[in-house]
Specification:
- The protein is α/β, with parallel strands linked by helices.
- Helices cover 22% and strands 27% of the residues.
- The strands form 7 sheets. Strands 3-2-1-7-20-19 form a 6-stranded mixed beta sheet, with helices on one face.
- Strand 1, helix 1 and strand 2 form a beta-alpha-beta unit.
- Helix 1 packs parallel to helix 6.
- The longest helix has 18 residues.
- One of its GO terms (molecular function) is oxidoreductase activity, acting on NAD(P)H.
- Keywords: FAD, Flavoprotein, Oxidoreductase.
Length: 380
């Protein structure tokens, strides 16, 4: 579809994928009517900051803010999309209105997975969640965090920094699934040194009372705290696309350019990217950005647009450590040290792959990401 045929575009979702898609549409030459629909009342913000700087910087309420965009779109915030009619090319909103489009970008992201329906279960997904948690930490309650992934560990780190006593419940050693046993050991060691209690269990559930749930472990042990936070994954927001034929196993499969169908692009946490083993999510901030760029270009130029080329990038800040990693995760075995050495201090590590590339990780905030990308692409 050319820019001449593409006069009205609706972007559904105002996270980083939606924002990037809108900016890229303008950069690609689209000068028509652009509308962004966002179910939160806030302008687009940095989601990674919510469990990092926003929890830690007690006098800083701007860590999540992004630079103002120049896309000039009409922004409908605090409004939820409830349906899509691909044949009529309409997006239905929860206020009863319909938005016509020539092209649409699906970027509704995901929501926190919950362990219960109890009001006392706290999750961290959006800005309001983060501000609410930050406010509760001011009272220094005892905290139980359920979930040993990056989000759970970042939340536990922020709670400790706020002066709380914190227990983290995990299936196995925290971060192992995401970072591999070597890096996981480095982070868990730093966490324990700072006072984190780590409990390993096969499963955990929450039970009442409604506003003060207890965590019941598979072994029968009961953990009680003033605050229970769960960080056990997310659920793609695809229910509003029911009946469109666009959803398979809870995801929106796309081609190598980010198109689900001609005129329908998708990017971010609801997308299944093509792999030899079928559609797969890559729920990373950097992935959402690159997906949105490719999808917006494909919406304008179709098959003439370049396919997505994505080099995974992951970063986390927790327990006094700052990690930046480029390349496939988790890496296997122990790394080669290009700088520094074991012990948790500043270091540059590389796990080589058979094809000559590698996964590169820096425990040093001063090392720029472009250098990590170069080291990942070629032999060190």
């Amino acid at each position: 579809m050319s820019t001449a045929a593409l006069r009205r575009v609706v972007v559904v979702g105002n996270g980083i994928a939606g924002l990037t898609a809108a900016d890229t549409l303008r950069d690609t030459g689209f000068d028509g009517e652009l509308t962004i629909v966002g179910d939160e009342p806030h302008p687009a913000y940095s989601r990674p900051a919510l469990s990092k700087a926003l929890l830690l910087d007690h006098d800083d309420h701007a860590a999540h803010r992004l630079a103002p965009s120049a896309h000039g779109a009409t922004e409908l915030l605090g409004v939820r999309a409830t349906g899509l009619d691909p044949d009529r090319r309409r997006v239905r909103l929860d206020d009863g209105t319909e938005l016509p489009y020539d092209g649409v970008v699906l970027a509704t992201g995901s929501r926190a997975r919950r362990l219960s329906a109890l009001a006392g279960e706290v999750t961290l997904r959006g800005l309001d969640d983060a501000l609410g948690l930050r406010g509760r930490l001011a009272g220094r309650p005892s905290v139980v965090v359920v979930g040993g992934g990056p989000l759970g560990m970042e939340i536990a780190s922020g709670c400790l920094a706020a002066g709380c006593t914190v227990t983290l419940v995990s299936q196995g050693l925290p971060l192992t699934v995401q970072l591999g046993p070597y890096l996981a050991g480095v982070f868990v060691g730093a966490a324990r040194e700072r006072g984190l209690t780590v409990v390993d269990t096969e499963s955990a559930r929450l039970e009442g009372p409604e506003h003060g749930p207890r965590v019941v472990l598979a072994e029968g042990t009961v953990l009680e705290a003033g605050l229970v936070v769960s960080a056990v994954g997310d659920v793609p927001n695809t229910e509003w696309l029911a009946g469109t034929g666009l959803v398979e196993r809870g995801l929106v499969p796309v081609d190598a350019r980010g198109l689900a169908r001609p005129g329908i692009a998708a990017a971010g946490d609801l997308v299944g990217l093509p792999t030899p083993s079928g559609p797969r999510r890559i729920p990373l901030w950097s992935s959402a950005i690159e997906q949105a760029k490719a999808a917006a270009r494909a919406l304008v130029h179709g098959g003439a647009a370049p396919p997505l080329e994505f080099q995974p990038y992951f970063w986390t800040e927790q327990f006094g450590l700052n990690l930046k990693a480029v390349g496939p995760l988790p890496p296997a075995g122990e790394p080669e040290y290009l700088a520094g050495g074991p012990g948790g201090g500043p270091a540059l590590m590389r796990w080589p792959h058979p094809d000559g590339t590698g996964t590169v990780a820096a425990l040093d905030h001063r090392i720029p990401v472009p250098r990590l990308r170069r080291l990942s692409r070629s032999a060190a």
